[in-house]
Amino acid sequence: MQHHHPPPISTTTTTTGSAVTTPYILLATTLFFFLLVLSFTTSPSPPPPPIQPHPSLFPHHQRILFHNPNTTQNQDSPAATPPLPPTPPSVAYLISGSANDSDRILRLLYSIYHPRNQYLLNLDRSAPQADRDTLALRVQSVPVFRAAQNVHVIGKADYVLPTGPSSLSSTLHGASVLLRVTALWDWFINLSANDYPLVTQDDLLHILSYLPKDLNFVNHTSYIGWRESRKLKPIIVDPALYLLENSETFYATEKRQLPDAYRLFTGSSSAILSRKFVEFCILGTDNLPRTLLMYLSNTPASNLVYFPTILCNSRQFNRTTINHSLQYVSLDSRQEPHPLNSSTFDDLIQSGAAFATPFLPNDPVLDRIDREVLERNPGKPVPGGWCLGESENEKCSVWGDADVLKPGPGAKRLEKRLVELLSNETSRSRQCSTDHGIEPVDHQSLRRAVSRQHQRATS
Ligand SMILES: *[C@@H]1O[C@H](CO)[C@@H](O)[C@H](O)[C@H]1NC(C)=O
Ligand SMILES: *[C@@H]1O[C@H](CO)[C@@H](O)[C@H](O)[C@H]1NC(C)=O
Ligand SMILES: *[C@@H]1O[C@H](CO)[C@@H](O)[C@H](O)[C@H]1NC(C)=O
Ligand SMILES: *[C@@H]1O[C@H](CO)[C@@H](O)[C@H](O)[C@H]1NC(C)=O
Ligand SMILES: *[C@@H]1O[C@H](CO)[C@@H](O)[C@H](O)[C@H]1NC(C)=O
Ligand SMILES: *[C@@H]1O[C@H](CO)[C@@H](O)[C@H](O)[C@H]1NC(C)=O
Ligand SMILES: *[C@@H]1O[C@H](CO)[C@@H](O)[C@H](O)[C@H]1NC(C)=O
Ligand SMILES: *[C@@H]1O[C@H](CO)[C@@H](O)[C@H](O)[C@H]1NC(C)=O
């Protein structure tokens, strides 16, 4: 039963509004002013005016806000008549890029677009301001983005070095803006212009709607070998944190001990994080998110450490973590990711992952993914259950109910992968630690819930 919490109710809007006393929120508010919120051009005074997205996309807006608990209650009783599918969740995406990435960011946006989700686009400071303005205008010229009011562009950017602390700071900035923009999302996903999806949003939202909303997906391990030590012990200074000019990171000759006040975990920079956890990192009263941030401000690869370490050192979250970020990455012998191309297409699809990285700009394999996996035409969103157009090329110019999902084969692949992850005895007992005998998330009933969607989707 615990697996079907109703989606977060809109009351969070008021909580963020009234909590403007803490300095942290003030900071978030200030950052929010810099945001070019395309949809509501009225005065940006907090709290933002209630958004009124287009009624054809959200005919059941009432249902989203005042969710009827009866629709999700009987999921676990097999005797009941087929219950209504749960209300789909929504995902907040942060998409980051730098100079010359505008086209890739737009392509990625189309490929992961769904009216229920939220999107925040961030071009870092190595891209000229003109690029940011043009990107905002291009986004604004797309009717469905305007109608659903869910694509936002950060108007003022900072420098970001790809793996340094500045990259972590940029991710946290994006997450805090997304928390301010709307209360209606359940998971946070951080993507870069190098990433691309391997399933449609209808597939992803469909599968996520059967999972408890407090699950976090991130690769993590407490094993710190020489390779990891080499990334954690050096002391660095990331100039992107304080200089206006872009310049190289510099390394101190001294090295330091690993911390013992908490246990370090390292993992992947990609993750699917629950809203509750993102709030804990940004608005929470526990101090670990801040202490760790300070510690990591001089650490290379801080973006690989931050989320896994907080998750695994917090009593509230150490049982909510699945040891996989659902992202496919192919590492070479030096543990560096190497670009994916057509020869990896079959592996990509068989992996059952939701995303893959890195791709080179306009690599032909992206066209193949568009054609064979997403069924997406160039310059158009992926046709989902909300697209009612008749003609092949204009499917998504007629809008229907955004709550209606049409999952395809991608949902089956994702389901299979999740069931594997959840049924793996080894990873079950080792969640967040190397200790045995811990009983983590109730994987059994989770697995049943995920499998049930299969029968429903095929019937
Ligand atoms: C839920 O179901 C119960 C019993 O079937 C009913 O009394 C109640 O009014 C329902 N609640 C809502 C919000 O529909
Ligand atoms: C962006 O593209 C321009 C022209 O194609 C090129 O001169 C420049 O080096 C590129 N910048 C980056 C950071 O790749
Ligand atoms: C997570 O998975 C990786 C790779 O399969 C493994 O090395 C690591 O030990 C796992 N983490 C935990 C906490 O079990
Ligand atoms: C996460 O771990 C799995 C193995 O458990 C591995 O296949 C995958 O490449 C890892 N992902 C990242 C982003 O490191
Ligand atoms: C967010 O994603 C970007 C692009 O993939 C990556 O460089 C960055 O490290 C990520 N941030 C965190 C905190 O994982
Ligand atoms: C989670 O935290 C609790 C309380 O701190 C602790 O007892 C438990 O061992 C932790 N579990 C894992 C898997 O680390
Ligand atoms: C794909 O990349 C691999 C290694 O990165 C390379 O060996 C192969 O030739 C590439 N294939 C194509 C079709 O470009
Ligand atoms: C289960 O997890 C272990 C260790 O994380 C890994 O070696 C094994 O391949 C996994 N099995 C499956 C079926 O994913």
TrEMBL record:
Q: What is the predominant subcellular site recorded for this chain?
A: membrane
Q: Which InterPro entries match?
A: GLCAT14A/B/C, Glyco_trans_14
Spell out the subcellular localization from the entry: Membrane
- What are the TM regions of this chain, as residue ranges? 21-40
Compositional bias, Basic and acidic residues, is annotated for: 436-445
Q: What is the lineage of its organism?
A: Eukaryota, Viridiplantae, Streptophyta, Embryophyta, Tracheophyta
Q: Where is this region: Disordered?
A: 68-87, 425-459
Which keywords accompany this UniProt record?
Glycoprotein, Glycosyltransferase, Membrane, Transferase, Transmembrane, Transmembrane helix
Which GO CC terms are listed, alphabetically?
membrane
Query: Ranges of Basic residues compositional bias?
Result: 449-459
Q: What is a single molecular function from GO for this protein?
A: glycosyltransferase activity
Name of the featured protein: Core-2/I-branching beta-1
Q: Which organism is it from?
A: Forsythia ovata
Topology in membrane: Single-pass type II membrane protein
Task: Please note every region of biased composition (Polar residues).
Answer: 68-77, 425-434
